[in-house]
Amino acid sequence: MSRTKRMTLAISAGALALGAGLGVTGMASAATTPTPSPSSSASTEATPGATGGGGMRGGHGHGGGERGAAQAAELAAKLGVDEAKVTEALKAFREANKPATPPAEGTKPDRATMDAALAKSLAASLGIDESKVTTALEELRTAAQADRAAVLKTRLDKAVTDGTLTQAEADAVAKAVAAGVIGGGGH
Prior knowledge:
This protein has 187 residues and is mainly α.
């Protein structure tokens, strides 16, 4: 492979990883901030994309802004409760689980532990069965992952059409994202 193609692939992969990573972290910020657990140092996808539901991780401890509000609205609709109550419950969860120090570099809090803690907290705050909350969060995460995959496919198809990448290169990037090697996909 020529040096130019290698550079193009590396730059494209980096941009795609950044874009996919931002999608994942945005979902996380809506529901929670990564929390250290006894066994590890979040999935966002720590908490289902929630709405965090589709992938709740990252977000650098911010509340999620417009995206967080939209995700809270989606979760509220799935649960059949008032959006303001969901927003308040998510805020309370984030505050209660704010880490004293950031996780060590290269470590991630355990996603299953974070998901379970979020579902339990929301269920208690909203007076809803925990299994219903867990199901809603999983559905939101799955939908968010499907949306990110569709956006990635569209971008890769355009790069192939534009001649920026070959089909083999685009397939390799998609495979790497799906496997979680780059961009936080595959969760």
